[in-house]
Amino acid sequence: MKIQIINTFKRNVRRAQLILEKPYQYLEDQVATTAFPNLHIAPNIYQTWVNRHFGKTHFNEILQFRNRNPDLNFYLYDNQMIESYMEEYWGNHPIYRIYQNSQFGPSKADIFRICILNERGGFYFDINKGCKAPLHSLLQPDSDCLISYEQNDCIIMPEQSIMDRIAHPTKLAMQWSFGFARNHPVTTLMINEICDFYPLFKDQHFDNPKNAILSFTGTGMLTRVIRKTLLQNPSIALNQAGIDYNGYAIPDMKGSWVRYFTSPAYSKSNNRPIVL
């Protein structure tokens, strides 16, 4: 009985908070107003969500993030825009079939972010995340990528031959944000690896689809790809910005929970295939 009362109270508080977050705010794209100092990475940030409407608090947090990066263009792709892009630019590539057959929006977003950065170059950020420092401060003028690591441990160690080239070999690569020059070896290999592993995931039911997606198109696959890229390219240098962008990462913007009232979280699904 006590637990039911507490849960009811929490639901009522959340409903009251939701009322204060309305009306939802419409988010436009934004054009850079100053020059970007990096020589290789396109000055674009790509983000995704099912629509362009956000609660007031989240909307203001996004604007603050944009204001810290006046040298970058911000592009938000909704579902229809992603579909159009993937068909136009990747319709003849095997990755497009995998994208079409993916059963969860986050997996489709994983594929989209790698494809558009491979084709155009730039940065990607999940819509509920950001960085407290300007992105150019995490780069050198000649950097051709920006990667970081999560605080979450990776229990599989990399090959000994590349241990000294990985800033945090016991951590998972951060997949909710990164930046790459066009046709970078990491994004190219990531696309190829997803295609190669597709038959192993096709039509398979998973008790926890979220973990399967992390392995197939998410942070697990990215960690594997970064390590394999270093093995295949002994001379390549990756710009690695510590853990959580050297502590400047914003892992969950204030008020970002409101977005799930228009699109439920996929983490509640179970015993389903992630790709057909």
Describe the 3D structure.
By secondary structure, the chain is α/β, with parallel strands linked by helices. The protein has one domain (23-273): Spore Coat Polysaccharide Biosynthesis Protein SpsA, Chain A. Helix content is 39%, strand content 17%. It is built from 8 helices and 13 strands. The protein has helices at 2-21, 56-67, 79-90, 94-101, 105-120, 185-201, 209-216, 219-232; strands at residues 25-26, 44-48, 53-54, 73-77, 122-125, 130-131, 145-153, 171-173, 177-180, 205-206, 240-243, 249-250, 272-273. Strands 2, 4, 5, 7, 8, 9 and 11 form a 7-stranded mixed beta sheet that branches. Strands 1-3 form a two-stranded antiparallel ribbon. A two-stranded antiparallel ribbon has the order 6-12. Helix 3 (79-90) crosses helix 5 (105-120). The chain starts with a helix and ends with a strand. The mean pLDDT is 93.
Helix and strand arrangement:
Blueprint (H helix, E strand, L loop, with lengths): L1 H20 L3 E2 L17 E5 L4 E2 L1 H12 L5 E5 L1 H12 L3 H8 L3 H16 L1 E4 L4 E2 L13 E9 L17 E3 L3 E4 L4 H17 L3 E2 L2 H8 L2 H14 L7 E4 L5 E2 L21 E2 L3
Parallel strand pairs: 2-4, 2-5, 7-11
Antiparallel strand pairs: 1-3, 5-9, 6-12, 7-8, 7-9, 10-13
Helix pairs in contact: 3-5, 5-6, 6-8
